[in-house]
Amino acid sequence: MLTCSSFLPTAGYFPLVYSVNFAVSYRIDDQQQPAIVASKMSFLFGGRSTKTFKPKKNIPEGTHQYELMKHAEATLGSGNLRLAVVLPDGEDLNEWVAVNTVDFFNQINMLYGTVTEFCMADSCPVMSAGPKYEYHWADGQTVKKPIKCSAPKYIDYLMTWVQDQLDDETIFPSKIGVSFPKNFSTIAKTILKRLFRVYAHVYHQHFSEIVKLGEEAHLNTSFKHFIYFVQEFNLIESKELAPLQDLITLFNGKP
């Protein structure tokens, strides 16, 4: 049993039809539609981007991390997601991971904000990602023993916990000259692992609503960017990615 939120395979099978549907809806190549790719960092869901699940996390202007964020936005403007995740020459890996972790939190925050009206305790009584995967919540501090809860409650716990980490200056320092903690990589990996679970839940349980809202292209672009980033720096174990492995394989262009 994991000391953080636990990951429990459940009986059943992984429905390939999900991956097929995702692929059919996904029509943005790395080199195409750069305007969509560039705009997603600040305006991921167009007119719906003002609706967020939690308050947006801002990187203070005048900091080096803010400069890195602007660099990332400019790189995304080329439309090449593979290039966008590469560590810029001469930059610190921890700072690069920190900036992108904040960005992914904001993206997922906006993403989940579009489906909160569909993700209710009665419709999503457990936090799942299809029939095979179920998540129980524990943060190792206030909740030490994993608890089974509804998807909206789990995601509320998760996003609140992530927000607390991002706001902690001892973990995510924003001031020049302040070093990252020695365990920063471990903390960042845990954050990204948990954020992945929101993507997984939305894809498996709410993709039809995403399609009806016309947001599937933005969702796919955001998730592809996320996957390229965590794969570039080996930030999430492959077993944790299993709920969306078919889709990830398609995004990676593998047979």
TrEMBL record:
Keywords from the UniProt entry: Metal-binding, Zinc
Residue positions binding Zn(2+): 119, 124, 201, 206
Pfam families cross-referenced by the UniProt entry: Mob1_phocein (PF03637)
Gene3D superfamilies assigned: MOB kinase activator
This protein's record includes keyword Zinc: yes
SMART domains (UniProt xref): Mob1_phocein
Alphabetical list of InterPro entries matching this protein: MOB_kinase_act_fam, MOB_kinase_act_sf
Name this protein carries in UniProt: MOB kinase activator-like 1
Organism classification: Eukaryota, Metazoa, Echinodermata, Eleutherozoa, Asterozoa
